[in-house]
Write a structure and sequence with these properties.
The complex is a heterodimer of chains A (340) and B (354). Chain A is 73% helix and 2% strand. Chain A has 340 residues and is mostly helical. The longest helix of chain A has 51 residues. Helices cover 76% and strands 1% of the residues of chain B. Classes of the chains: A mainly alpha (340), B mainly alpha (354).
Chain lengths: 340, 354
């Protein structure tokens, strides 16, 4: 630094030095923060990469990923695969056709037509969107509610635990489908109400699961250590206990995506889900079943209209089977005992 | 341990078991109250409970009398208490769907569902355990892969879809099985429907000494029972296979083999019973799925049971029937799980009866 001597200069240099130090210090804290984050993320990233490679090596889980991926792709690309007509609600299947039209006839809807002259192809494509959104929404909401309630019940124990667990007892004392039926029965028939009923039915299982996890983790040494350095209760609960009880949650979420899709289709099938004509696979089967075991004539040829059941059925099967394959694969991967 | 302490140990276990059972039975009471309270509130929000007792010909004052009679003018808590009092006294209300008292309607529909569920339960327990045991013994062989496909298929396929596919194949295409009902129309028309003491056609037809009718009942039962049991078979099979594999890896099994016991003795004496323990716990849980599946199966096969009755009563907002059905299902489900837990505690002495 080339400056004249004198107090002022000294002061200036001192100031500059100070600020330099400060900048450097700031930089180094930032660096340290980033390094910290990196250091914290690194094992996790490695773990995820590890898990992913294990999924790739597990061919049944990979088959599940492909199956679910296919359905999710159809759900996302629905407006491209089957453009909705005009400004109609895209989830109402257009019924502009004659019934019956068998599938794979030139110039006709590719998967044929169903009862009331609906376009089967359109219904199947948009049904993917209904199913994926329903399952995701229901399972994630239920898991979140269950996570909070289960964590609170397990960590605080005592009366809170007792009350919350008796509450879950009540909800778990009836089979899911029947409880959802009873709740859906009093609401008007719509997709939103069906999801609401399913969420009410589904959260208690998660609360139980998380509570059990929390009870075991609460006694572990690292929680003891956190307590010893004076961490607050909420911090211990949400920084230490909840993240460590996540892995069984992930497995259950994956398996339940399929189970919710099954239950939703069943509710729609018996008539407590969506209205007729809605793009939902269970509803499509229900609407088509009267034709399923009959003979129809198209251009003078007799058909047994298998397509009204087959296409929506195979889509449900692909989704639920895929979820169950991924869930089993994840269970094997996340459970260290089964890694050997 | 000498014989005295063995006896003493047995007594302590029995005492603990009985107090455990009593405690669990007492716990059922708040659960049942909770379930019915929730459903009661829901149905009261949804519709007018007086609708079941009113028809168009009634005048305003008559309707008012109906409301008076069934306490429908009082606060909802009092209404619930009146309803619960009725339950205890055997008055479960009037079923609009069946045009008879709810208790009579349940008594009429219950045997049909129970017969179907019981047959499906027995099928799934025996087939599931058998397949699971065998596939564990033949791990990674063709049989194992086969059962894995079956179990994957069983948990994934919707019950109603399976029912429809079976109907299409065996009724519509092959004409091997009947389309619906518990018994052939000819018996209904002739008025010789088994009218025995139990309401189970399987038993009643045998009591009546009519073997042809018994076969007819079995013939009607096969497709619904397969439809209903496949999902439970899949679950039980999987659990049994896993727990067999776990037990097969334990040290005492190695010891048994090292002693030179042949494989059959090792499996039958040392492995099978111990592997059954985790399986019993899921049997109670699958029973719930079975009750839910019964609703769907009955809808597909037009089975005159509780499931179909509940679907139509929900469709008509028949409050008393819905409440009765929910109460019954909760009671049965909780009791079955209690029995399973007791069996579990009996099979596995390590279980603490807490």
């Amino acid at each position: 630094m080339i400056r004249g001597s004198g107090w002022g200069d000294i002061l200036v240099t001192a100031n500059e030095k100070m600020s330099n130090v400060r900048v450097k210090d700031k930089l180094s804290t930032e660096h340290r923060l980033i390094d910290n984050i990196k250091a914290e993320l690194k094992p996790r990233l490695k773990e995820w990469r590890n898990s992913w490679s294990m999924i790739r090596n597990n061919w049944t889980a990979m088959a599940g990923v492909i199956m679910v991926g296919f359905i999710v792709f159809v759900a996302l690309a629905a407006p491209l695969l089957a453009p909705p007509h005009g400004d109609r609600d895209p989830l109402q299947i257009p019924a502009d056709f004659q019934f019956p039209k068998p599938p794979f006839q030139s110039g006709e809807p590719i998967f044929g037509t169903g009862a009331n002259g609906i376009d089967m192809y359109y219904g199947i494509v948009w049904g993917a969107r209904t199913t994926v959104t329903t399952s995701l929404y229901v399972v994630l909401t239920a898991a979140l509610i269950g996570l909070i309630i289960g964590a609170i019940a397990g960590y605080y124990g005592g009366k809170v635990d007792e009350i919350l667990m008796r509450l879950t007892d009540i909800f778990l004392s009836m089979p899911a489908l029947i409880m959802a039926m009873a709740i859906a029965s009093i609401l008007s028939r719509s997709l939103e109400n069906m999801m609401f009923a399913l969420i009410i039915v589904w959260w208690p299982a998660y609360a139980r699961l998380i509570r059990g996890q929390v009870l075991t983790i609460r006694e572990s040494t690292y929680v003891e250590a956190a307590k010893a350095i004076g961490a607050k209760r909420n911090r211990i609960l949400f920084r230490h206990i909840v993240p460590n009880s996540i892995s069984p949650l992930i497995v259950n979420i994956t398996l339940d995506l399929g189970a919710v899709a099954l239950t939703a289709a069943s509710l729609s099938y018996i008539g407590f889900g969506v209205q007729p004509g809605y793009a939902e696979w269970g509803r499509m089967i229900s609407d088509g079943q009267n034709w399923f075991m009959s003979i129809v004539y198209y251009n003078g040829v007799a058909y047994n209209p298998w397509w009204v059941i087959f296409f929506p059925g195979i889509m449900i099967l692909i989704f639920t089977m895929g979820c169950s394959l991924i869930g089993d694969g994840l269970r094997d991967i996340l459970d260290p005992r089964s890694r050997r | 341990m000498d014989s005295y302490s063995v006896k003493r140990f047995g007594q302590v276990v029995l005492m603990r078991l009985s107090s455990y059972i009593i405690r669990r039975l007492l716990l059922i009471i708040p659960v049942i109250i909770g379930v019915t309270l929730i459903v009661f509130m829901l149905t009261r929000i949804a519709g007018d409970p007086a609708a079941a007792y009113i028809n168009e010909k009634m005048s305003e004052s008559q309707i008012e009398q109906v409301r008076e009679k069934y306490h429908l003018n009082e606060p909802i808590w009092d209404q619930y208490l009146y309803w619960f009092q009725g339950i205890l006294q055997g008055d479960w209300g009037w079923s609009k769907t069946d045009s008879k008292p709810v208790l009579d309607a349940i008594a009429y529909h219950f045997p049909a569902t129970f017969e179907l569920a019981l047959v499906a339960m027995v099928l799934s327990v025996f087939i599931g355990i058998w397949l699971g045991t065998k596939s564990a013994i033949r791990k990674d062989k063709l049989f194992d892969h086969g059962t894995r496909v079956v179990s994957l298929f069983g948990v994934s396929i919707p019950v109603f879809l399976l029912g429809l596919l079976l109907l299409d194949l065996f009724y519509f295409q092959l004409h091997l099985f009947p389309i619906h009902g518990r018994i052939s129309e000819s018996y209904v028309v002739a008025g010789t429907v088994p009218n025995g003491p139990t309401g189970f056609y399987l038993i009643d037809s045998l009591v009546a000494g009519d073997f042809r009718m018994f076969l007819d009942v079995v013939w009607h039962l096969i497709l619904p029972a397969i439809t209903l049991s496949l999902a439970s078979i899949a679950v039980i099979l999987r659990i049994q296979r896993n727990s067999m594999l776990e037990v097969l890896g334990l040290d005492y099994v190695k010891t048994a083999r090292a002693k030179g016991l042949d494989e059959r003795t090792v499996i039958n004496v040392h492995v099978r019973k111990n592997a059954l323990i985790p399986t019993t716990t899921v049997i109670g849980l699958t029973f719930g799925a079975l009750l839910g599946g019964a609703v769907l199966t009955e809808s597909v096969f037009a089975w005159p049971g509780l499931g179909r009755w509940s679907v139509s009563s929900i469709g008509r907002m028949d409050t008393a029937s819905i409440l009765g059905f929910c109460m019954l299902v909760a009671l049965v489900y909780v009791l079955v799980n209690l029995i399973v837990d007791i069996v579990y505690a009996y099979l596995d002495p390590r279980v603490r009866l807490g």
